[in-house]
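Aim 2, interim progress. The first record below pairs a target sequence with its C-alpha cells.
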Amino acid sequence: MKEERAQYIADILALDGDINGREMALAFIADSDVWVHGAPAPFPYVPYLFNKEDRAYIADQVTTMHRILCKVIRRYLDDEDYRELFHFPEELHRLIMLPCDYDDLLPMARFDLFLNEEDLSYKFCEFNTDGSGAMSRDYMIGKALMQGAAYKRFAQNHELRQFELFDSWVASFMRIYESRPNARPNPTIAVTDFRESGVFSDFNRFINAFQTAGHDARFTDIRDFEFDGEHLVDSTDGQIVDAIYRRAVTSEILQHPGECDGLIDAVTAGKVCLIGHFRTTIVHSKEVNIALFDERTRAFLTEEEAAFVDAHVPHTYRLESGVNGFTLDEVKRDKDAWIIKPADDYGAHGVYPGVDFDQERWERIVGENLDAGYIVQEFYQPPRVDIINTVIDDDDPCLIESWQSMPGVYLYEGKPVGFYCRLGNEGVIAIDHGGLCANSFAVD
C-alpha cells in the first residue's frame, strides 16, 4: 500500500499534477449517479492500492473477526441468559428471533477499520451489516480515475483491477437462497429500503446484476409490501416476492412502527427469504463492542480470539450512570480519549468525538446523552495517508495533503471481496464531515 501510494503520487507529479485527468475525473463523476446529498461524491485523485500481501493480511484479519461475530450471533440465538448482555428493546429482540431457514449468520458485512499503512497495525471502527452500501462509489470513482494519464502511467508498470462487488453478491445471495429447503425455481427478488433514504446507484446496479444472471429483480419500498397469509406481495403491482435483499437498517424500521408489517409478518410466517435477516443487527449494534469484552463472551472464544479482540476492538461502555468500567469524571476530563455514539444507528448520526469539541461543549454532550441509549468508546486516532485532491488547488496544483484514513472491507459469505475507503480531517470520517470517498484497486 505505502509504496504503491508513493509511486502513484510520483506519477501525478511527473505529469505536473495531471490537470486534464483530474478535470475529466470530476466531470465523469458529476455526470454519474454517485451523488451524495445533492452533489457529486467528493474524492481524491489517489486511489487505495492493495497488493497481494496487503490483501492476504487484511483477509486473514477480517475473516477472524467475522468468525468471532458469528459465534456471538449464534450464542445470542441459543442462550437466553446470554441475551441479557445486550440491552435491546423488546421489538428488536422479537425481530432478531424470527424464523430463518438458512445457516449463514452474517451473509453481508462491511468492517470499517483504522489501518496504518506504515506497519499494518489497526483498530476496527465499526461492523456494518444491514444496510452496508456505497459499492457504486468505489466502482464509479475507479472508472473516473482510469481515464487519466496518471492511472495509465502507473498501469504501465503495475497490473491493476477493480474489485467486483455486484455479480459476486448475486452469486452469494443465490447460494444462500438455494440452500433453503423451500427454495423455489426462478424466484422474484426485491431489493428493499425506505425510498427516501435508499442508495439507488447501488440498488440499480444490483438489480441489473440479478437480471443479467437470469433472475427477476426489482426495488420495492419496504412499506409497500403486503402479506396475504401465504405470499409476500409488492402492493404496487401484485407481484409475489420470494426473496429479499434487505438494505433497510433495523433502527430505521423500528422508527416506522406498523409501516413495515407486511414484510415482518411474512418473515414471521416463514413465507419469504430475508437476506440479511434481522439477526445481523446483533453485531451491527454497538452493543456487540461491549459484549466482546464480557466474560460471558470470553467463555466461548478461544484464547487467540480473545487476544485478537483485545488488540483490535476499542473498549466500549454504555454511557450510563453507575459503575460501568469508567467514570464520568474520567470521560469529561480526558475528552480527546473518547467518542460518544448511539448504540444503534448508521451514517455517523449522533456521533461525538471529543477531539472535535471544546471542553465546555464536551461536558454538555456527555450530560445530554447520559442514560439515553448511547455508548462511550475509546477514541483511536486514525492513521494518515498522503493524497493529491481531485479538486485542483489554485496555488499549487501538485499539493500533497495528509488525510485521516478509514478503509472498509466488504465480506460476502464471510469472504472479503473488496473495499469502500474514506478520508477525513475531523473526528468523524464521513462525507457529512468534510470527508472524501476513495476508490481502491488490486495491484498485482
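The second target in this work package is listed in the same format:
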Amino acid sequence: METYSLTAFTKKLYESPLSLFTTKTLRDLSSADLPQVTFFSLLARLTRGHILQKIERDKYVLAGGRVHDFNIANFLYEPSYVSLETALNFHGVLSQFPYEIASITTKKTVTKILNGKTFRYARVKQELFWGYESMHGFLIAQPEKALLDLLYLQSKGLALVHTDELDLSKLDKARLAAYTTR
C-alpha cells in the first residue's frame, strides 16, 4: 500500500463543510482502506502540525477555523442546547454577559473547560428538553424557554434568577404563556 498523503487529507479537511470532527467523521473522510494504525498516526501528525486541535477524546476542531463557542457547546456534550443566562443574553433579554456558556442536557450535569472557557451543562428531564431552535448552525433555546429553564433550575435550588437584570419586554408573551402551561 502506498503512503497516505498528509497534504491530500489536509486539503479534504479544509474543503469539508465541517469544522468540528469526531474520530468517526475523520475516518470517513480518510481512505476506507487505510489501516487503523496509519489513521491514528495521521491524526497525531495533524494534531502536532496544528491542523487539528483535539478538544477531548474522539473530538477535534479544525485549527484556525472560525467556530462559534455555541457550536462547540453543542458538540462537546450531546444532546444539548444553549440556554439559561447565555441564551437570554444572546436574545437581548439579559444585559449582563455570562462568564460561562450554559446549556441544557438530558444527561448528567457536568462542567467542561476548553481553552480557558467554561461550558456548563445542567440536566433536565427528557420531557422538558424542547423549546430550542437551530440558529447559525447551533441549537439555542428560544428566549421564553431559556427563562423557563432558568426558573426550573431555581426551583431545584440550582440557579439564581435576578429579575431586575431581565428585560422581559423582549419576550413573546403568548409564547411564554403557552410554554408555561406546557
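The two ends are 60 Å apart (CA to CA). This observation will shape the mutagenesis plan for the next reporting period.
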